[in-house]
Amino acid sequence: MFDYIKGTLVEMTEVSAIIDINGVGYDIICANPFDFERLIGESVKIYTHFHVREDAQILYGFKSRDEKTLFKKILNVSGIGPKGALSIVGQGDVDLFVQAIEEENEKYLTGFPGVGKKTARQMILDLKGKLPFILTQSVKDSKPTGEANPNALVEAKEALKALGYKDREIKAIEPQLKQAKEQTTDALIRKGLMYLTQ
């Protein structure tokens, strides 16, 4: 129904962005609200999926069309609802997720909250060969692992410092970041912000 919504970002919550369009505020549940936090007061474009169920009508938002497409594909997996799909999109990387599906990498998939071996196998069964993404050679050459990419971790820590967090705060969450599966700097920054604001 809504491909995207473009308007002024007026407020952030832990789970959503409030977008004002001509005096109407749209509450959009986001995979990563912190992606938009620095843009409060500015015009933003959020790709959306309108989800209707018996007791609610909910707008889910994403920073890219690829994230939105992946969310909709994951929703088609038996046993996974919007909350689970949003968690996967929010904590993962689109390319690495697709690579894990194509390579049947259960270890990577079970690293997401609420995803056990049974659900991982179901995702592989339902999604392999059906995800409309083209992996770059650099992604193909990399391997999703159970540990964070060391170079990305260094860059993420520097970015968190630039955002005003103290060394002691970052050091306190560093063990958790090292154990994270994220392989990109952006994903590790999001994970770090999540830990720091808990």
From TrEMBL:
Q: Which residues fall in a coiled-coil region?
A: none
Molecular function (GO) terms for this protein are:
ATP binding; four-way junction DNA binding; four-way junction helicase activity
Q: What family is reported? A: Belongs to the RuvA family.
Q: Which GO terms describe its biological process?
A: DNA recombination; DNA repair
Which keywords annotate this record? ATP-binding, Cytoplasm, DNA damage, DNA recombination, DNA repair, DNA-binding, Helicase, Hydrolase, Nucleotide-binding
Q: Kindly list the GO CC terms recorded for this protein.
A: cytoplasm; Holliday junction helicase complex; Holliday junction resolvase complex
Task performed by this protein = The RuvA-RuvB-RuvC complex processes Holliday junction (HJ) DNA during genetic recombination and DNA repair, while the RuvA-RuvB complex plays an important role in the rescue of blocked DNA replication forks via replication fork reversal (RFR). RuvA specifically binds to HJ cruciform DNA, conferring on it an open structure. The RuvB hexamer acts as an ATP-dependent pump, pulling dsDNA into and through the RuvAB complex. HJ branch migration allows RuvC to scan DNA until it finds its consensus sequence, where it cleaves and resolves the cruciform DNA.
Domain Helix-hairpin-helix DNA-binding motif class, residue spans: 72-91, 107-126
Pfam families attached to this UniProt entry: HHH_5, RuvA_C, RuvA_N
Q: Carries keyword RNA-binding? A: no
The subcellular location is:
Cytoplasm
Name of this protein: Holliday junction branch migration complex subunit RuvA
Matching entries from InterPro entries are given as: DNA_helicase_Holl-junc_RuvA_I (IPR013849), Hlx-hairpin-Hlx_DNA-bd_motif (IPR003583), NA-bd_OB-fold (IPR012340), RuvA (IPR000085), RuvA_2-like (IPR010994), RuvA_C (IPR011114), RuvA_C_sf (IPR036267)
Q: How does it assemble?
A: Homotetramer. Forms an RuvA(8)-RuvB(12)-Holliday junction (HJ) complex. HJ DNA is sandwiched between 2 RuvA tetramers; dsDNA enters through RuvA and exits via RuvB. An RuvB hexamer assembles on each DNA strand where it exits the tetramer. Each RuvB hexamer is contacted by two RuvA subunits (via domain III) on 2 adjacent RuvB subunits; this complex drives branch migration. In the full resolvosome a probable DNA-RuvA(4)-RuvB(12)-RuvC(2) complex forms which resolves the HJ.
